[in-house]
Protein: Alpha-catulin
Organism: Gavia stellata
Amino acid sequence: QITTLINHKDKPKRSDKTLQAIQRVGQAVNLAVGRFVTVGEAIANENHELKEEMSVACIEARRAGETIAQLTDVASLDHPESDSHITIFTDKTGVVKAARLLLSSVTKVLVLADRIVIKQIITSRNKVLATMEQLEKVSSFQEFVQIFSQFGNEMVEFAHLTGDRQNDLKDEKKKARMAASRAVLEKCTMMLLTASKTCLRHPDCESARINKDGVFHRMRLALEQVIEIVTDSRPNGENEMAPISIYSGIKEFKNKVEGLRENLYFLSKDNLSTMLEVILEHTEDFTDSAYTSHEHREHILELSKQAKMELEQLVSVWMQAQNQKTKDLMEDLEVAILKTCQCMNELKREVHSAATSLAADLLKYHTDHMVLKALKITGVEGNLEAVAEYTCKLSEQKEQLVEMCRLLRHVSGTEPLEITCIHAEDTFQVTGPQIISAAETLALHPSSKIAKENLEVFCEAWESQLSDMSMLLREINDVFEGRRGEKRVYLSLPRPGKHNANLKALKPVKLDTEEQAKIAKLGLELHLLTSDVDSETEKWEDQENEIVQHGQGMSSMAYSMYLFTRGEGLLKTTQDLFHQAEIFATEGTKLASALHAFSDQVHDDDKPLLLLEAEKLMSMCKQLQITAKASVQGKSATFTKVDACILKTRNMMTLLCQLLPLCCKLLRKNKAGNGCLKPAPPWREERIRTATNAHTPERRAETFGTKSLENHVTNMTFLESK
């Protein structure tokens, strides 16, 4: 809105409509600043150490907002230039100065508020650490129950604060690291409960103590990583550089090679040679691995040798072209560039095939969890010799899965997926020994119910990570095949036993093979529509546009519903699907509201069509909400409801495919100077209200991990009595 004011055209004739529009913008800016400053002042009153700085920044912002309102108070003036009243027309410099002061002071308020948020997270972390120290030292069940209850409440508060922070992070890499750390804390909360109880029940058992110490250590590391992300620092003052993956190395190498077309002198041949050497060193992770097949190993070695030869040829032609830029030499250079890039693509394809085929084989082989089942049985029998035998097998399995994660990281394709692979590797490394110590404790105390429960908790964590790996493998394959890019991960995605805490206990229902076959065609149509929507959103220059973001959100959720029709993805049961359909409809309603707001800027010729489409979308959202919330009983009725939800989602995605290009066209029309959009959009006030509502307790209740932490606290006494 400020940009609209500063860039307004100084026309000699000013219509009443123009004057009213300018005044409306000035008033809207002043009102928005007033609301913003009110929040800033409230924050200042609650945080005395920053009160003075915050108050000064708020006063500056309020003064700037009022100045802008005064300078744009022109609607009642017939001839503002002849009036003694100073306005935007007589003092445009004043508006520019006020705008700069406003942006400067608003930035100060935001920076100060951010410091307060960081301080809140650090304070919350310190509380958790202090209570953890108390939990480590307790010697009686009664004392443990009291302190764990306090610990649980503190973890819930920490989950809320870090969940909000995760949503606010713009860096996808940091967001993925934060999600990984918070996932560790969530899972470890239940582990800490059972491991501590086992240690209290069997205080002289060394394996029980080792088991408990491992949980505490892992939680402390996760808490430390959260603070590193929040404060953007590391304790030793150095930045941790993650080892480069083969994918990212090849991508950078190809960019440099292809850059030779534009500039023959922007890098040296040594730079290219060094980059290739680093890539080929990383391929040794595959060729040296005991789990890489002989065929893949041979192909990788052949392609590595070929890559060196292609680079030698490229460097030779490149050096000649630097000295003598003839047509023949430039053609030879183009051929050398193409052959080098083609060789690197083949190498990338080969390592991808090696990693994903190994992962698919291992996950299929370990899907029955035979070793875990055997450990539980032999533990209850008190058979120490058999437990020792199966712990060796679990250690072998752990090494295989760790190697699988390392190889998958090289071919993950995106930084968030790379971080997910690293997190998975750490999880297998840590959880394996913890299962072993829990199994040894049970074997030493075969009649102990708490030792049995403790082993179950650690085995469930292992099984859960294996399940997550199957989904990760599909995501890596999707990125490689160009089906999915770096999509936003919606925290509202339901996960079994976590986000449905506010629902009545329902028997989980999955689609059987016959039902999946019936709905497969509809699911495939939904999949194709998500690809179409993704293609349309990529055409927008402004990826932060509200319409684009809602469209991307709907596409991401529709894709998860498509995966459900294949029996894959995060949505495991029909209840998960219905909950996702409700969230999808809510996102559609937000998009419809954004379209209505956008239509207020559009001139009369374009407005009717846009409003008609927005009304259609709003109606479809209401219908989907009704269908998703409808109560049904019986297998046949449940499948009919699933079919109806997928069908209505497909229809909404079809409409979305029409809406996105229409809105994009109107925006481009405006940029071309055809005046499609009216100035002074007053609808941003609604956006501010919407943004505020997004942080209500109901919204935050969907935050990843919070519900399950609250469940741990609520059920803790009940678990103890058992």
Remarks:
- The domain at 1-76+88-113 is CATH 1.20.120.230 (Four Helix Bundle (Hemerythrin (Met), subunit A)).
- Confidence is low (pLDDT under 50) at residues 78-83, 485-508, 674-707, 712-722.
- Residues 300 and 351 are 7 Å apart (CA to CA).
